[in-house]
Amino acid sequence: MNSSASVVFQSQDSGEELARAEVYGLLAELFFAPPSQGLFEQLRVAVTQAPRAGAFLEGSWGELVGASRRLELPEIEAEYVALFGGVGKPAVCLFSSWYLAGALNQQPLVELRQALEALGLERPPGVLETEDHIAGLCEVMRYLIAGEDLGVSNLATQQRFFNTYLRVWADGLCEAIGAQMQADFYRALADFARDFFAVEAQGFDLVET
């Protein structure tokens, strides 16, 4: 999702798949780096009411938009560095190997790279983060939903990738962010991500394999 894309809830009739892809793109962008000025401004004016009253994501989405309106961009940038940057081990690690194997660059990353190679995907040139960064995994899901190659971008592949490479550790990441006293904007983001992943998991559980 680029910074010019709309941040909205969409009804199922008006494009549920597009909405799913956009959410994954948004998560990828916000977990990879602080929001750009353009995305920050979009978040501040985003609609917070879901099309159907009581929709599960409405509460956490509203909290994320509320944090965007309450905080200034430099505060969010400083929070990102405090949580995920700095010298040495960060307060919160954004790589799946840490949660699955207790250290970076372990067997889960090897298996992920093999899976990405089978899908015809590879890390873009210039990207230093390994492929198991949460942003990279969300970007893969966005591609598996919105890509044009139906041999790769299909529901069965989405289900398999999500269950294997996101579902097994994403809650741990969201809990780790929420446990940080300095987390504000990113606590709201983690809550929204956790709720969205729960909806995805429930949907995939209903898919016949």
TrEMBL record:
Keywords: Chaperone. It comes from the Bacteria. InterPro entries: DMSO/NO3_reduct_chaperone, TorD-like_sf, TorD/DmsD_chaperones. The keyword Chaperone applies. The keyword Mitochondrion does not apply. Pfam families: Nitrate_red_del. This is Molecular chaperone TorD family protein. It comes from Roseateles oligotrophus. The lineage of its organism: Bacteria, Pseudomonadati, Pseudomonadota, Betaproteobacteria, Burkholderiales.
